[in-house]
Amino acid sequence: MAALSQSSQTGQDPAHHPVPAEARMGRLSLTMAWWAVCSAMFYIVVGASLALSFGARNALIGMVLSVISYGLVNSVLSRFAIRSGLSVALFSRLLFGSTGACLATLIFFSTAIYYAVFEGSVIAVALNHLYPELVYPLAALAVVLYSVPMILGSVQHWLDKLNGVLLPIYLGGLLVAMGLSISRYGYRPQWLDFGPQIPDAFGWWHCFVAYMGVWILMLFTFDYARFGKPEDAGYHGRWNFGMPFYAVTFLLNGAAGIYLVSSIPHDGALNEVSVVMAILQLMGLWGLLFVWATQTRINTANYYLATLNMQAFFGRFSVRGSYWMWAVAVGVIVYGLMLADVFAYLLKALAYQGIFVVAWVGVALGQILCARNDVATLERVAAFNPAGLFDGVVRRHGIGACLDVFRRWVEQFFRPVDGDSGVRPPGRFVAPQTYGVAVGRVRI
């Protein structure tokens, strides 16, 4: 996201046009911008939560499988995004039609806003915890006020450099937290046994499926990779957006989360706030710096992607506005949601959004691998693409709704994760083949 404002120098709106050659970024700048995504404490908590439910060893196996699958899929998506310069919004027009693509941008910007609310609240809670005189609403306002300018104007030119500085702070802070935990509470070799006394034999599969609920990162990949240079496609597909990134994002963060939660005493149910409190308890003011570094890095991505896709969504309905206007609108929405007690509703909404995200990835792979991808046809696409809409919306959401109604009957076979984690229909595995058949490019 950082330095992505280069596209504004060309006079083209990045939400409505492919990225031209002169607006592409060097591999180091794009790497520093993209790696901001790996530093969310959300990943630490996900790993710990899965270990709590299915056992640490099963969680680690699920993480390894996720690293492999994410790396393979994103290698395909990133190379295509670099080659075409298309955004998720533009590519969705090829998948679902000019009007049908609005659903993709709606889901994308609403999901990015949710993550901005979730991660921004962590900083606000940490500030309020260390400085009680700074009440939570003012702390939340402060977070929004410094987050929005980071994706505006010339600030974006140095934001990749800021993320480059924050990366060692994040990695160093994580190692320091682990070291302090060992120093204060002693090394706990039984952390690998953390979780149920008798783990589920197929717990590793449940953990792997749970990580499929975060496939929104594949859409993040697409919108970032479009700024890469074609000559760097191999590097980005293999390293920047590939397995090394997810080894840090899922495996390193998840393993650290399992160890910290299993070794540091905490009160109440496990959630992101409890992990933050444990880090503040261990590190004090330095812990606040660590939390700020992690959440600021990830929120630069959340705000940028929410703004870009909100602009594209409303632009389709002739509601026009500058990039900075939509950035301010995102900030206002994020602040309002940070003050409202809507987390339970948002988590449930994310479960259904996850169905569409997985469907989008499947249909996108089908389009890339099985169909023609002529960027010049973007202006001539129909309002609706029946092939993409049927596979991505009707079939997938229809199956998801049925499984939600009959979840008690089919949970063990089709949705092996917890009922509150979201619908996980098996159709995701055949999306590329289904779409390929629909467009007539794959023979059965």
Characterise this structure.
The protein is mainly alpha-helical and about 450 residues long. The protein has one domain (about 5-340): Hydantoin permease. About 70% of the residues lie in helices and about 0% in strands. It is built from 18 helices and no strands. It has helices at about 25-35, 40-55, 55-85, 90-95, 100-130, 135-145, 155-185, 205-210, 215-225, 235-240, 245-265, 270-285, 285-315, 325-340, 345-370, 385-405, 405-415, 430-440. The protein is globular. The model is unreliable at about 1-10 and about 390-444 (pLDDT under 50).
How many structural domains in the coordinates? Answer: 1
Could you spell the SSE succession in H and E letters? HHHHHHHHHHHHHHHHHH
Proportion of β residues? under 5%
Corresponding CATH superfamily: Hydantoin permease
Largest sheet: none
If you average the pLDDT, what whole number results?
76
How many helical stretches?
Answer: 18
